Amino acid sequence: MFVVCVAVLAMAAASCASGRATATGSKGRRDSERVIVVGGALGGVRAGETRTAVERLLGSGQTDSVTRHHYPRRRDVTLYRVRYGASGLTIVYGQAGAGRERVAGVFSTSPRYHTTTGLRVGATLGIARHRPGIRCTAQEGYVACQGGRGFEQPVTSFTVRNGRVVQVFMAAAAD
User: Fold this and answer.
1) What confidence tens digit (pLDDT) does each residue in 42-101 have?
2) Under a CB-based contact definition with an 8 Å cutoff, are residues 135 and 147 in contact?
3) Using an 8 Å Cβ cutoff, are 174 and 3 in contact?
4) What distance lies between CA 25 and its chain's CA centroid?
5) Ramachandran region of residue 59, left (φ > 0), alpha (ψ -120 to 50) or beta?
6) Distance (Å, rounded) from C-alpha 70 to C-alpha 53?
7) Would you state the torsion angle of the CA atoms of residues 162, 41, 12, 23, taken in this order, to the nearest 10 degrees?
8) Domain chopping of the chain, boundaries
């Protein structure tokens, strides 16, 4: 799963650089859960859930990309990037070998998702820095404000550009 986590983080950076994902024309339904549980869930979707369970909640999504990674000493890993337009979520599923597709990461650029303390897309860096359990560190071209336990637990990250949160993502961690 460590390899999946690294690939999900790389996809997060690429997704942030590519701008806002839109929901036009894709199937699915809006989720009812709008609270971000730092280190736990985004839009009611938790790390490790099966694609079948997610699609019971959100409906079917639109697959944007499929990436296969071959590792000589490990099982091959396939990553599926699926957009659920009605909910404003993009989910990366990881599949090791012939196993089930499981949530490796959840992304959103929608301000509808928020923590119980109000941290969301559109919030300022100042707001992010003053939220309990969130640590902000400068990166090249952006600030990453992260919360969660990290190793063996999901991490939630708020990407800040030009002083505002532009994306939130939750990624499964290595096990």
Assistant:
1) 999 999 999 999 999 999 999 999 999 988 877 889 999 999 999 999 999 999 888 899
2) yes
3) no
4) 21
5) left
6) 27
7) -80
8) 2-171
